Amino acid sequence: MNFFETLFPVLETKFNVEKDASAHWDHSVIAKASVLRDLIIFLRDDESSKMEMLLDVVGIDYLGFQDYEGPRFAVEYVLKSISHPGRRVRVKVFVSEQDLEVPTISDLYPIANWQEREVYDQYGILFKDHPDLRRILNHVEFEGHPLRKDYPAHRRQWLSTNDFLLPALEKRLESKGYKVVQHSKEVLPNEDEYLTGSIQE
User: What is the pTM of this model?
Assistant: First the structure.
């Protein structure tokens, strides 16, 4: 008997999860967003699982999937045990277009901070209580979410200004005990410069 055959009945009883029928090669459960945090905490801390490592947070858009009926989006969490090498579990949460929100787990696994931002940026799924939910791959003026199946792949997007990142960096330095002698000020682009592509004297 593998570890999942022992673990699943416990997860089913405690968190009302289901086995993911589409998972043929690994161990995957489907959970509701309302129990996600408690489920992740259990998987991370309980001796029966000890999933100490979050490998990835992945967005899925099911638009256009053949014979698929259900919520359009899902978020998957790929977990791995360090204490028990070879043990992995995927947790899938379905997300409807009408309620594009799941709770953050960035306080449970710090790497989720960046991973959730990527899913938000690419799919538009919101992570409730995330400390800094903003784009991470696309620029600050980008409109839409490019990994959605209905996003026009050849659409061009205008960029007129950079995302001002220095305040966050300075705040991080100060939290680590460094003294910022002079705080940065945002320099907005010169309209003539970014419209013509030339530097104005």
Answer: 0.83
